[in-house]
Amino acid sequence: ITGVSPFFVRDLHRFKRRYNFQEIQNALENLRQVDYSLKNYAIDEGRLLEQALVQIVKGWPATLLPYAAKN
């Protein structure tokens, strides 16, 4: 129904973990920063997305991303 491989979904369930509220906030901020950076800088999209994904999985804040807004 979703168009996603059942093998991918199985692996996703195997590697899932519970995120606390702060980690979810960090993930959303990471995505916001990625969106902003991709729209405003000539940047390697793949590298930026890879870094953001690692930060989201580890629960790290968006301030560690290159080009993160310092507001």
Biggest β-sheet, characterized?
none
> Given the C-alpha coordinates, what overall shape results?
globular
Q: Give unreliable regions as ranges.
A: none
Helix content: 55-70%
| End-to-end C-alpha gap | 41 Å
Structural class: mainly alpha
The total strand number stands at 0
**Number of helices in the DSSP assignment:** 3
Name the beta content range.
under 5%
Order of helices and strands: HHH
Radius of gyration computed on alpha carbons:
14 Å
Task: Describe the 3D structure.
There is one protein chain. The chain is mainly α and 71 residues long. It has a domain at 18-64. Helix content is 62%, strand content 0%. It has helices spanning 6-15, 21-40, 45-58. Helix 2 packs antiparallel against helix 3. The longest helix has 20 residues, at 21-40.
What's the SSE blueprint?
Blueprint: H1 6-15, H2 21-40, H3 45-58
Helix pairs in contact: 2-3
Summary of the model, kept short:
The protein has helices at 6-15, 21-40, 45-58.
Main traits of this protein?
single chain; 62% helix; mainly alpha; 71 residues
